[in-house]
Amino acid sequence: MKLTCLVDNCALPGFGAEHGLSLWIEAAGHKFLFDTGSDALFTENAGALGIDLREAEFCILSHGHYDHGGGLARFLEVNNRAKVYIRKGAFGKRYSRKPEQPVEYIGLDQSLKDSDRFVEVNEKLDICPGITLFSGVTGDELHSPANDVLMGADSVTPDDFAHEQDLLIAEGDKRMLIAGCAHRGIVNIIQKAGQLDPSPLTAVVGGFHLAIPGTAEVNAPLVDGTADFLLAMPGTVYYTGHCTGLPSYERMKSRMGERVHYLHAGETIEL
Asked: What angle do CA 186, 141, 221 make, to 5 degrees?
């Protein structure tokens, strides 16, 4: 099981960085893309790594925000055959309402929504043996206030993140959980994954949505509570970045030590 970060807010020397996430995954006998970042940067970083995106058998979109699906148009150009698995409703319009700033559209490119390359997913889909998409996360532990500026189609009603889905990969005795932004809360997502497969998780990868937009502020109760929950899972190692935010990551790192790592663009992990 091999995972390479193509896009993150931070990058290793020689690679580009942007606000977004994109992962190249080789697991369970398949090669595929998870999210596409904000633009076409994922293709440039993939090329620098010797990754041929034409080999992707499919693409998964974690949710309907531009920083994860902004590169969809470019992916459809580069790879002319792979289906893209999206959560039902992912193409709904979405906005950000940050204090004292204009309302900002943060959804997907609406010109793409009628493409026959997209496959809408309900609450659970086994794409192939060992690769499962799921949503329907109902828990509300450790709510992130970073969600409070994110709105639905009318730009006023808070987003319920029903358009978010997560990925569970099983290969041999290894289990990897991948979340895009974990808007529903990484704690709640892990608990939902445990209902689908009670086997211990080897690794959890993705953004944990702990950053407070526009500031370097750290929500200590949220970060510490999340870290303590993650530490209580024996043996699981965590690879995070993007919307976790560097200040929150550093606080987690001081609490969790070698159980948590920052995953930069250009970096590969193998299980």
From this structure: 90
